[in-house]
Amino acid sequence: MTAIADAIKKVATGPHLSKDLTQEEAFAATMEILNGEAEPVRAAIFFIAMRMKRETNEENLGILQALQSVTEQQQTDTDELLIFADPYNGFNRHCPVTAFLPAVLAAAGVPTVSQGVFEMGPKFGVTHAQVLALAGYDINQNVVAAKQAINQPETGWAYIDQSQASPKLFALQALRTQMIKRPSLATLEKVVMPLKSKGRTHLAIGFVHKEYPAILGWLAKEFGYDSAFIARGLEGGIVPTLRDISNNHQLLNGEMLTCALDPQQFGIKQDTRGVKVDDTVTAERTLEEGLQALSGQTGPAYDSLVFGAAIALWHTGLFASQLAAADHVRAIINTGKAKTHFDSGIY
C-alpha cells in the first residue's frame, strides 16, 4: 500500500470516522504527489478530503516540510531578510502595487524577496510576476541569482518564481485548477523559504479567514522563521486597508500577539481601502500606478507602499514609532532612493 492510499483511507471516511494523519504520514503522502508517484485523482482526493476534514497543525507542517524538501534554498549574506508572498492566484479588485514593495524595503534597509507564480487558478488575478515582467524584470531567474541580488546593497530585493524554486510543486498547477477549491497548498506554499538569512529571517503573510492567524503563527515558529507579521490584508495580501483600523497578528519572540493597526498612526488618511480602478484591474495599470508612486506621486498606491514598508520596519524592530517608520519610507521614496533600488533589480 502506498503512502497516499493509506492517507486517503484515514482522512476520506466521512465526518465521523475520518482520522488525522501524523506529521510523518502527511509528509510521505505529499512527497508521493510531488514526485509524480500518485495518480492525479488520488492527489485530488487527498487534498479535498484534508480540506473537508480540516488539516491539523501537524498535518500542515508535514505538507509544508514536503514542499520545502523540493524547494531549492540558498543562504544570503544579509543580517535581515523579509520573505513575503501575496496570494499566488492574484488580485482582481485592487492593483497589487506590493510588487514594488521589496524595492522600497530594500532601500529602507530590509532586504526583501517576494515569491509567487505568473498566474494561478481558480481566480487568475493580477500577480507580481505579471507586473514585474512588464517592467522588464527577469521573472525566470533562478534562486542563486535572487540571492546575489539580495546580497548587493544597491539592489537588495528579488522576486522568485515557484517554477524556478519549486518546479515539482509548480507542476501541480493544472491539477489545482481542476480541483476548483483551493487546497492547503495555497496557504502553505507562501511559507516556503527559498532564501534564508545568515541572521534573522522574517515572514509577512496575509489571511482572510479568522482561523488562520493561529495556524500561520504556529507554522512560522516551527518552520524556523524568527518572526512573522500576519496581515488582515486586502484580498488576502500583506497590506491592510488604508481606510480603517485592521486586526492583524504578530509572531514575536516565539509568542503570538494581536495587532490593531490604524493607518492614521502612520500619517495616512485615505477614503479608499486600496488601489481601486474604475474598470478591470490589469498588470499594465498596476505597473503605471506603482511607477508613479515610486516617483513620489501621492495617492493610494503611494500610501500602500508607505504603509506596507513602515509596518515591516516597525514589526522587525528597526523603528519603535509607527509614524517615524512611515516618515522614513516617505523620505526613501521622495528622494528617489526606492526607485533607484527598483531599477537596479530590473536592469
TrEMBL record:
Domain of life per record: Bacteria
Leader peptide range in chain numbering: none
GO CC aspect terms: cytosol
Keyword terms: Amino-acid biosynthesis, Aromatic amino acid biosynthesis, Glycosyltransferase, Transferase, Tryptophan biosynthesis
Swiss-Prot/TrEMBL GO biological process terms: L-tryptophan biosynthetic process
Domain Glycosyl transferase family 3 N-terminal: 6-68
Catalytic activity, EC: 2.4.2.18
SUPFAM superfamilies to which the protein is assigned, alphabetical: Nucleoside phosphorylase/phosphoribosyltransferase catalytic domain, Nucleoside phosphorylase/phosphoribosyltransferase N-terminal domain
GO molecular function, one term: anthranilate phosphoribosyltransferase activity
Pfam family, one: Glycos_trans_3N
Alphabetized InterPro entries for the sequence: Anthranilate_Pribosyl_Tfrase (IPR005940), Glycosyl_Trfase_fam3 (IPR000312), Glycosyl_Trfase_fam3_N_dom (IPR017459), Glycosyl_Trfase_fam3_N_dom_sf (IPR036320), Nuc_phospho_transferase (IPR035902)
Annotated ranges, domain Glycosyl transferase family: 97-338
Ligase recorded as keyword: no
Record protein name field: Anthranilate phosphoribosyltransferase
